[in-house]
Amino acid sequence: MYKCIIVDDEELARNLIKNHLKQLNDFEIVAICESAIDAINVLLEHKVDLLFLDIEMPVLKGTDFFKNLVQKPHVIFTTAYRDFALDGFELNAIDYLLKPITFSRFLKSIEKFKVTVGRKSNSEEDEKVKYKETKKDHIFISVERKKIKLNFDEIIYVKSVKDYVHIHLHDTKYLVKYSLCSFLENLDERFYQIHRSYVVNTSKITAYTKNYIEIDDKEISIGESYRATLLEYLSNH
């Protein structure tokens, strides 16, 4: 299991990398940090194999932060600016990823990392991307002092409402206190965040365009920052 941390001052960028990593079964996210300063303490407390590091951040740039590390993990730099790529390669980075990061481009970086650390298997099966096996098929939620079991297959989509989420099933819905990102972490790989306010069960999608999906007789817009990853996933499943 490869241990990694994500360091980026943009929430959308952090969530995108996190969602990409959730599709792989051999990576563990040790921490998600909003700044290089936050990452320092994590690196002091944990052995990290791979660092996803944004280059342009306030207070301390990612490249300056990495230069000053005594014990350097492998690093993949992320940036919204193509001109910063040279800075990353001068620091012997595994790769640099230009935002917005598509899943296919992300996988190329992961393959480079595995080759570098010498753990890539020669077998045909191990060369394929391995998706997480579903460890569970349900979640318990708290509703009116009761714990209610929801099978993942029952959930159509989840909508964020301030500090709560609406969990939509075919014939009912539940309002529970969760952030959308926290709730997504409890689900399996069929669930994707497609908008800052929506997570959907991709197995329930009946039609889609580049701008929206149709699910349970409802159209839900696809957020621009989620579009490339979602459309790539849907085209391959």
UniProtKB/TrEMBL annotation:
Gene3D superfamilies: 3.40.50.2300, LytTr DNA-binding domain. Residues 139-205 form the HTH LytTR-type domain. One of its GO terms (molecular function) is DNA binding. SMART domains: LytTR (SM00850), REC (SM00448). Signal peptide: none annotated. Pfam families: LytTR (PF04397), Response_reg (PF00072). InterPro entries: CheY-like_superfamily, LytR-like, LytTR_DNA-bd_dom, Sig_transdc_resp-reg_receiver. The modification 4-aspartylphosphate is found at residue 54. The lineage of its organism: Bacteria, Pseudomonadati, Bacteroidota, Flavobacteriia, Flavobacteriales. It comes from the Bacteria. This is Sensory transduction protein LytR. Keywords: Phosphoprotein. Residues 3-114 form the Response regulatory domain.
